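Contributing new records

If you add data, match the layout below exactly. Sequence lines come first and carry their own label; structure lines follow with theirs. Keep one chain per record. Anything else will be rejected by the validation script.
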Amino acid sequence: MKYDLVFEGGGAKGMVLVGACDEFFNRGHSFGRLLGTSAGAITATLLAAGYSAQAMLAALEEKENGQPVFTGFMGDPPPFSQDAIDTSAIRDLLRNINLKFIPEFLENRLDDHLAHMLADNRRFRHIFAFVERGGWYAAGKFVSWLESKLDSGRTADGSANFKAHRYGHQPHCDKAYRVRISDHGNGAFQRR
């Protein structure tokens, strides 16, 4: 029987989802559309790329320097450039708050100082990155890992490398990046 599958987020729950997929397929079921958030988006993406439950489990068990590869995905966001801070949504928000009792030139300096303080402080940079880059942690390592999985995966029928389908119907938004931002929205994939 064919089902549409929805996978929720939950970090380590991703490994449980792989086991559930294995049982699902062992019972002779298949899927039509896939939807997932966070760890569930990773599962949905790899399934759409044609990964078997065993191949997904092997990917989840990868190590780098003796540590699970996933621990490297939770690094501090890299610093923001001066231009990135000055043109940020946070800076725009501060610019649009008008404190009537503070002269404009002082308010602009205060807005600049607050934006730079948030972006430059290691603790607050996560908040700045969440708003400006779509995630609490640095994305580069995760996106590179997922792109390598997508580029090496095959479609379910084995006819094509998934890289050709990576952009889908949204040419300016890579599916690896959509999974990265799945904490803000869902990663939805449909077999054609």
